[in-house]
Specification:
Blueprint lengths: L1 E7 L2 H13 L5 E4 L10 E5 L4 H10 L5 E10 L2 E6 L1
Antiparallel strand pairs: 1-3, 1-4, 2-3, 4-5
């Protein structure tokens, strides 16, 4: 299984970003940030790659100062692999 997450350093910006995606008909979920990603607020926004270009555009047009990056998360038989995009 492969999905993407947007990581922030502010919980309120996670919530605002998720609400922005939903307002633009982009399915998403708020999840716990993988612990090996360092200092974050502990929550991230999960979404499918199909929406990535639109999500990047929304992020550029809005002021999310605590945005920390996009990550690709892949789950397979060997465990979970997380890679910054």
């Amino acid at each position: 299984m492969r999905y993407y997450i947007a990581v922030f350093k502010s919980r309120s910006q996670v919530m605002n970003f998720a609400n922005l995606l939903r307002a633009n008909n982009i399915p998403c979920a708020i999840i716990n940030t993988p612990s090996n990603l360092g200092k974050t607020c502990g929550l991230s926004v999960k979404f499918l790659y199909d929406y990535f270009p639109k999500i990047q555009n929304l992020l550029r047009r809005n002021n999310f100062r605590s945005f920390d990056g996009f990550y690709e998360v892949t789950n397979n038989f060997n465990g979970t692999n997380i890679q910054k995009i």
